[in-house]
UniProtKB/TrEMBL annotation:
Source superkingdom: Bacteria
Domain (RNA polymerase sigma factor 70 region 4 type) ranges: 127-178
CDD domains the UniProt entry points to: Sigma70_r4 (cd06171)
Protein family per UniProt: Belongs to the sigma-70 factor family. ECF subfamily.
Name of the protein in its database record: Sigma-70 family RNA polymerase sigma factor
Keywords: Sigma factor, Transcription, Transcription regulation
Record carries keyword RNA-binding: no
GO BP annotation list: DNA-templated transcription initiation
Domain RNA polymerase sigma-70 region span(s) in chain numbering: 22-85
Cross-referenced SUPFAM superfamilies: NTF2-like, Sigma2 domain of RNA polymerase sigma factors, Sigma3 and sigma4 domains of RNA polymerase sigma factors
Length: 332
C-alpha cells in the first residue's frame, strides 16, 4: 500500500528540513557553544532548535523560509539565551570557579593546521576568551559572539535578537570595550605556545617549584574547576608565589599512573591528563604579552566536563612516582 500524496509530501518536507539543519549544524554548534560554554547545554539547545525548525511545517501551510541560515541562527540564539538564564541561576550554587567545558580536538598538532583552521579553532572558542565572556551580560555576550566572532552586522543581529540596531551597537561597544580591557590582543605562535605548555605541565606535575616561579607571570591567576566532585581550589588563586605553591601542593599527592597527552583544546595547545586510563584533568595556559610568562592557568577536573574527552594517538608522557616524565608515542 502506497502512502497518500499528502503523506509523501510531508515525508519529503521532513527530509528537506533535516538536510538544511544538518548543513548548518556545525555553525549552530559554534554559535551556541560560544554563548553557553557547555557542550551538554549546546547539544540540548540544538535539539530544541531542531524541534522548532522541523515543527514549523506542521499544521497550517507556511511560506518557505528564504534565508534558512539566518532563521536557524535566530532560533538557536534565542533558545541559548533562554537556557543561559536557567544556567546562571544554577551557577549561583556552583562549587568553586566555573570553567567552560573543554573542546578537545583530534590529535593533529596546532602548529600543523593551516591559517584558516587555526582561526576557526583559535580565539573564537579559546578558554581564556570564554572565561572573559562569562563576565558579560547574556545579551552582550550574544552580540559579541555574533559580531566579533562570526562577523554578523549590527542590523542582522538586531533581527536575530529583536532589538533595534542602535541598541545592538551600544551592546557591542560595551562588550568589546570590556573584553579588550580584560584580554589585550596577543597571539603567541603555536610552536611557542606548545613549547611553553610542555614546560609548564612538566613543572606543574613534577612539583618543580623553582621552574614554576621562573615561568609564571607575577600577576598569574590559577582557575580550577572540579564541580564539587574532584580536587580543586574553591576560588581563583592569584600571584606567582601562591599559584606556584598551590600547583606544587597538587603534585605532592598525584593519582596513580599519570599519562599526559598534548592536544588542541579550544584552539590552543594544552594537556589532557589521564589517571589509570581515565580522563583526570585538562590543563590550559595563557601567555602574557612580550614573553612575560604564563598569565593564566585553567585546570578542569570535573568528571562531567571530561566525559567527552577521548584518548587517541599522539605524543604522550608517563609521569613516574618520582615525578620524572618519559616520552612515549602511539596509542595511549
Amino acid at each position: 500500500m502506497t502512502d497518500s500524496p499528502g503523506r509523501q509530501r510531508e515525508t519529503a518536507g521532513t527530509d528537506a528540513a533535516t538536510q538544511v539543519f544538518v548543513d548548518h549544524r556545525e555553525l549552530l554548534f559554534s554559535v551556541v557553544y560560544n554563548i553557553l560554554g557547555s557542550v551538554a547545554d549546546t547539544e540540548d539547545v540544538l535539539q530544541e532548535t531542531w524541534l522548532s525548525w522541523a515543527g514549523r511545517g506542521r499544521g497550517a501551510p507556511q511560506a518557505p523560509v528564504e534565508k534558512p541560515r539566518a532563521y536557524l541562527v535566530r532560533i538557536a540564539v534565542n533558545h541559548a539565551l533562554a537556557r543561559r538564564a536557567v544556567e546562571d541561576r544554577r551557577r549561583e550554587m556552583y562549587a568553586g570557579p566555573w570553567l567552560p567545558e573543554p573542546l578537545v580536538a583530534a590529535d593533529s598538532p596546532v602548529e600543523n593546521a593551516d591559517a584558516g583552521e587555526r582561526a576557526l579553532r583559535g580565539e573564537a572558542v579559546s578558554m581564556a576568551l570564554l572565561v572573559v565572556l562569562e563576565t558579560l551580560s547574556p545579551l552582550e555576550r550574544a552580540v559579541f559572539v555574533l559580531n566579533e566572532v562570526f562577523g554578523y552586522a549590527h542590523t542582522e543581529i538586531a533581527e536575530i535578537l529583536d532589538r533595534s540596531a542602535s541598541a545592538v551597537r551600544q551592546l557591542a561597544h560595551r562588550a568589546r570595550s570590556h573584553v579588550r580591557s580584560r584580554r589585550p590582543r596577543f597571539e603567541a605562535h603555536p610552536r611557542v605556545r606548545r613549547q611553553a605548555t610542555e614546560r609548564f605541565v612538566a613543572a606543574a606535575l613534577g612539583g618543580d617549584l623553582a621552574t614554576l616561579l621562573e615561568i609564571l607571570a607575577p600577576d598569574v591567576t590559577l582557575w580550577t574547576d572540579g564541580g564539587g566532585k574532584a580536587r580543586s581550589v574553591p576560588r581563583p588563586v592569584r600571584g606567582r608565589d601562591k599559584v606556584a605553591r598551590t600547583l606544587a601542593g597538587f603534585a605532592s599527592r598525584p593519582p596513580a599512573d599519570l599519562d599526559v597527552r598534548y592536544r588542541s583544546v579550544n584552539g590552543d595547545a594544552a594537556a589532557v591528563v589521564y589517571a589509570e586510563g581515565a580522563p583526570f584533568a585538562v590543563m590550559v595556559m595563557d601567555l602574557a604579552a612580550e614573553g612575560e610568562g604564563v598569565s593564566d592557568v585553567y585546570i578542569v577536573t570535573d568528571p562531567e566536563k571530561l566525559a567527552g574527552v577521548g584518548r587517541g594517538e599522539g605524543v604522550g608522557r608517563t609521569v613516574t612516582e618520582e615525578g620524572a616524565t618519559v616520552e612515549r608515542r602511539g596509542p595511549a
